[in-house]
């Protein structure tokens, strides 16, 4: 794949109001404080990592675009917009259903509504919505980058977000996947599920580095494991294949990888499958690993971008894991520092059998 | 040169119940998945007739204008009005790429599986993503699917083996026999 630069990035998350604040919190070990959501019927509390500040999703999107493209973005007639999200406008639909005492078919909005609204307002040359569950943003980065490589556009803005949807909170709760303890512990032997997080993120992709590139996307791969709608093969074979294809697409070997950022949902089946997949690929020679969901929550369709941005911005200051000795994979019990040019493998998996891996390198990078 | 292998178009309307769709599907897929919603049924209906021509190394590029309204309505009513937990299968079906999962599982497709919201340039976007995977030899075939339901519905599927740049379904399938199913 032709390498593509993440020229700029923006992140609004529970960890901070913007990317700089999130970086500072991560480096200082300041974990976000969770809100509490009650599961209906059970009345059982579950932790939720919300974004502070009270901006609406629309206001977040506007601020992301300003932070990524500047206050005066200029003509965007060379720039594709990819909206990657599973929640889209569900917050509006939820409010409408509550207000009207139920859903009516004419409440239904187009899945393309937000992308089309933003395209019209800002003048993007084209726009579409990508929704492949928790791999949405990873696929947005991957296909956006490859569209640049094919010279279909000169720039691509990937906008990824997950709003605090009651359906997502209650739905994951109904599936028994949300942590009752509120301790988000990927790969812990007694892990008890995920903690959902609200987040909004954007990045500008281009073939040129620009003045201060965040990272280069060197390759990736995405495919569908049809064995189960909600789980991937527990032996890790599909995950291994996806990671291998991602490395092949990037033209690098497993031995060259300097850090793995696992998907790490802290659900029983996912972590077991991913642990098996990572061990199948790397054998005994495992590179350092770092999980980021405890810091942002599981930001679902946005995690492919929220975690990628937090990862590439903090390679010299990655957090320690306080249960490293017990974890299924050898997470680091000490803060991690990875050199600037290290090759990074980032995993993102989702419902619908979607598994995706990205190969990245911080900054302008040197050819691997 | 056209790279189109086969195509199918299914038309119906709101009077066609999910049971009607399932009955029609059984002639193409004798063992249909259980607890699936209308969007999944429509996706399976337009793709199952192409099953004999699809290979394992086929990617799926699926788009829908709307989510399955009945599923979304039931979830919204349960969660936001009656303060109930959603039914797990309804929540899982509400994930937009659930339809793509079922198509890939039933047709044995092992390639990339993407779902986009169908906008004004939906065929252009689907063809562009498929062309990237075809050009990089990640897939040998691409199955493009667009589903649109308002009062009436239309589910269209095209199986291609090479890049294409048609404006719409009609342009993409010009010159080939499209299997037309009317419910």
Care to describe what's here?
The complex is a heterodimer of chains A (368) and B (183). By secondary structure, chain A is α/β, with parallel strands linked by helices. Chain A has one domain: Thiolase/Chalcone synthase (Peroxisomal Thiolase, Chain A, domain 1, 3-Layer(aba) Sandwich), CATH 3.40.47. Chain A is built from 10 helices and 12 strands. In chain A, strand 11 and strand 12 form a beta hairpin. In chain A, helix 7 (237-250) packs across helix 8. The longest helix of chain A has 15 residues, at 268-282. Chain B has 183 residues and is α/β, with parallel strands linked by helices. Chain B has one domain (4-67, 98-182): Peroxisomal Thiolase, Chain A, domain 1. Chain B is built from 7 helices and 6 strands, in the order E-H-H-E-H-H-H-E-H-E-E-H-E. Chain B has helices at residues 18-26, 38-47, 69-81, 88-94, 98-107, 122-135, 169-172, and strands at 4-13, 58-64, 113-117, 141-149, 152-160, 178-182. In chain B, helix 1 (18-26) packs parallel to helix 2 (38-47). Classes of the chains: A alpha/beta (368), B alpha/beta (183).
Termini separation of chain A? 13 Å
Number of strands of chain B: 6
The whole-number mean of residue pLDDT values of chain A reads 96
Say how many strands of chain A there are: 12
Helical content of chain A, roughly?
25-40%
Largest interface: A-B, 60 and 56 residues
Regions of chain B with pLDDT < 50 over 5+ consecutive residues? Answer: none
- Helix/strand-derived class of chain B? alpha/beta
CATH fold-level label of chain B? Peroxisomal Thiolase, Chain A, domain 1
CATH class of chain A: Alpha Beta
CATH superfamily of chain A: Thiolase/Chalcone synthase
**Major β-sheet strand ordering of chain B:** 3-2-4-5-1-6
């Amino acid at each position: 794949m032709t390498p593509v630069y993440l020229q700029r990035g923006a992140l609004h998350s529970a960890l901070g109001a913007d990317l700089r604040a999130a970086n500072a919190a991560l480096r200082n070990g300041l974990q976000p404080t969770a809100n509490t959501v009650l599961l209906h019927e059970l009345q059982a509390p579950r932790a939720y990592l919300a974004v502070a500040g009270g901006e609406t999703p629309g206001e977040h999107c506007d601020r992301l675009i300003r932070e990524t493209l500047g206050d005066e973005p200029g003509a965007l007639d060379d720039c594709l917009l990819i909206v990657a999200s599973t929640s889209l406008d569900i917050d509006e639909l939820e409010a409408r259903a509550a207000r009207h005492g139920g859903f009516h078919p004419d409440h239904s909005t187009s899945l393309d509504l937000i992308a089309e609204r933003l395209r019209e307002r800002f003048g993007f040359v084209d726009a579409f919505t990508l929704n492949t569950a928790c791999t949405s943003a990873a696929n947005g980065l991957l296909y956006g980058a490859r569209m640049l490589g094919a010279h279909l556009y000169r720039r691509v803005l990937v906008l990824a977000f997950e709003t605090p949807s009651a359906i997502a909170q209650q739905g994951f709760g109904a599936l028994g996947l949300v942590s009752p303890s509120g301790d988000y512990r990927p790969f812990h032997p007694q892990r008890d599920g995920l903690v959902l997080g609200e987040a909004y993120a954007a990045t500008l992709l281009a073939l040129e580095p620009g003045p201060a590139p965040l990272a280069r996307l060197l390759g990736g791969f995405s495919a569908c494991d049809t064995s189960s709608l909600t789980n991937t093969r527990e032996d890790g074979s599909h995950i291994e294949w996806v990671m291998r294809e991602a490395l092949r697409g990037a033209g690098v070997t497993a031995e060259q990888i300097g850090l793995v950022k696992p998907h790490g949902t802290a659900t029983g089946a996912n972590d077991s499958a991913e642990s098996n997949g990572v061990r199948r690929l790397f054998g005994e020679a495992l590179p350092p690993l770092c999980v980021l969901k405890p810091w942002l929550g599981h930001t679902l369709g946005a995690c492919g971008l929220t975690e990628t941005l937090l990862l590439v911005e903090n390679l010299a200051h990655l957090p320690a894991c306080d249960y490293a000795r017990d974890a299924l994979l050898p997470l680091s019990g000490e803060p991690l520092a990875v050199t600037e040019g290290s090759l990074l493998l980032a995993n993102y998996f989702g419902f619908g059998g979607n598994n995706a891996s990205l190969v990245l390198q911080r900054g302008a990078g040197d050819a691997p | 040169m056209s790279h189109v292998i086969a195509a199918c178009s299914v038309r119906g309307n709101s009077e066609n119940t999910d049971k009607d769709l399932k009955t029609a599907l059984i002639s193409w897929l004798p063992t249909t998945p259980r607890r699936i919603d209308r969007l999944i049924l429509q996706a399976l209906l337009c793709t199952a007739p192409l099953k004999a021509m699809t290979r394992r190394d086929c990617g799926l590029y699926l788009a829908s204008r709307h989510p399955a309204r009945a599923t979304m309505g039931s979830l919204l009513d349960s969660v936001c009005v009656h303060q109930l937990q959603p039914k797990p299968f309804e929540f899982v079906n509400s994930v937009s790429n659930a339809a793509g999962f079922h198509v890939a599982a039933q047709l044995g497709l092992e390639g990339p599986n993407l779902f986009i919201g169908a906008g004004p340039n939906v065929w252009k976007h689907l063809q562009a993503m498929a062309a990237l995977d075809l050009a990089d030899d990640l897939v040998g075939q691409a199955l493009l699917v667009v589903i649109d339901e308002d009062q009436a519905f239309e589910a269209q599927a095209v199986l291609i083996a090479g890049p294409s740049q048609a404006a719409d379904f009609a342009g993409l399938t010009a010159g080939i026999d499209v299997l037309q199913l009317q419910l």
